[in-house]
Amino acid sequence: MIHFDLTNKEFRRLLDMVYIGNWILNSTRGEDRFTDYDDVESLIFAQCLQKDGMESLYSIRNGVVSPSYAFRDGGIHEAIMDYEDNVFFEILAEELARRDMDFTPIDSSNYAELSSRIDEYIAEFEENGVDNITLDK
Q1: Per-residue pLDDT averaged across 58-85, rounded?
Q2: Which of 9, 39, 44, 136 sits at a 20 to 30 Å CA gap from 23?
Q3: Spatial CB neighbours of 42, under 8 Å, sequence gap ≥ 6
Q4: Exposure class string for 102-115: b at 16+ Cβ within 10 A, else e
Q5: What is the pLDDT of residue 2?
Q6: Is residue 124 within 8 Å of 132, Cβ to Cβ?
Q7: How confident is the model at residue 1 (pLDDT cuts 50, 70, 90)?
Q8: Is 64 helix (H, G, I), strand (E, B) or coil?
Q9: Rounded CA gap, 90 and 129, in Å?
Q10: What are the C-alpha distances in Å from 81 to residues 24, 51, 102, 109?
């Protein structure tokens, strides 16, 4: 067994990281979840039972400790959404830049061009989001 001491603030950050990690791994898997990650999340959140002031962060359902609704609704999903937005725009910018370059393999001779195109798309997305994206059908 591993034991380490964390301040309450550090432990709270650990709860955030455990929840975010499990959410990223399992949120889109439906019934095909990685249950071993659920088990670790439960184990970590169960430590709240021994800490003062953390009663609102966990709930117990069917004998399993899990993040409470208050924890999940307390802003953690805003952080996840910020991450998803950034990743979405970065991937979209790179895919559009590669498309513009006819999906030519990238090497040292064209990396600067790819980077420049990505930067242009990122600047556009930062200014206008997806408002100027159109699809020709």
Answers
A1: 93
A2: 9
A3: 64, 65, 66
A4: eeeeeeeeeeeebe
A5: 80
A6: yes
A7: confident
A8: strand
A9: 12
A10: 11, 29, 31, 36
For residue 129, CA distances in Å to 6, 50, 82, 85, 134 come to 40, 45, 13, 10, 12
Q: Closest Cα partner for 24 from 15, 14, 11, 33?
A: 33
Alpha carbon distance 1, 16 (integer Å): 22
As a whole number of angstroms, the distance between CA 127 and CA 131 comes to: 10
Only one residue has tokens 């499990």, namely: 22
Q: Which two tokens stand for residue 106?
A: 């990238």
- Measured CA to CA, the distance from residue 67 to residue 20 in angstroms comes to 11
